[in-house]
Specification:
Length: 130
Amino acid sequence: MLNRPNAEAIVCVVDDDSDIRDGIKLLLESVGVTCIAFGSTRDFLESEQIGNANCLILDVRLPGAGGLDLQAELTRAQIKTPIIFITAHGDIPMSVRAIKAGAIEFLTKPFREQDLLDAVGVALERDRMQ
């Protein structure tokens, strides 16, 4: 749960749907969390945020490399940023794979805003503990 604003925290969203990106950005900023949005994993990887993000919200299916691919790449690079997956096309094996690889949560679209905020709160707490 996201109990208090954390302006120092940076949450990055990677989703190819601009409405989803913008909605999540507005939601997080409404509770005092800085959010930076990207339309692809490539855009995220080319940014300076790869080492600065305190939480990642990743769509599973993206053009090019998807969210699960990015999770694997970050793991290989020993970057332990907490990850929340969102998807409209998930299945049980996919969610199990994500969670076993360390994801905080696996939410299906449409998800409740409070569920996402709760997951972000858990992710930011995990990041603080690392």
